[in-house]
Fold this protein.
Amino acid sequence: MLKRLNEVNDVVIKDVSDPSFASYGRIVQGFDTSDLAAYMETTAIPENGNVYVASVADMEALPVRKEIEAVIYGGLPIEIGYCNGRNSTCNGFEYHKGSELNLAVSDFMLMLAHVWQIKDNTITAADAQVFYVPKGTLIEMYETTLHLSPCRTKDEGFRCVVILPKGTNTPLSEEEKQMRDQSSDPESVLLLQKNKWVLSHPERKPLMDQGAHPGLLGENKELHY
């Protein structure tokens, strides 16, 4: 699969096992994620675009949640949800204060960059590296890693478990919005939802309609398969 992806794309695509992934995250081992993967087989992949659900009670009730919460997040509460879809473009970048775990229920690709590459609240897709995540792989992406939706490697799309600090990617309260809007901190213009800072491509209407900052410059890179 990796060989094929490199043949049909004009950017280098590396496996997450490659040493170059180390500044973005790591492969997580030692957790039985079979129940999470089994649940995900009951979730639908939309015909177009993506679906994201931040928190799924049935997934959070599985024993592995307590183990990940204790070992990876040091006892801090987490949420377990998923992102399924047919996306194949960059669309933008987001980051969180706290690591994100992704379980590849199917193969997918990720476009990644670093927060220190942001200049004046902008970045270009050319600054990103692309990584292939094989089915069954659990990865941790560090809080300094810019990312967004996975990109599919086959027509039927992808399924991805998403684990984050509890409350991430949920709406800001009116008070929080007011404090954000009145802040003189330059980063505040990127804050879109709870624990979610976003740089959107100007052509990515779903993000722009939410009020995301148009911080991804240049081509909205598409990955082929």
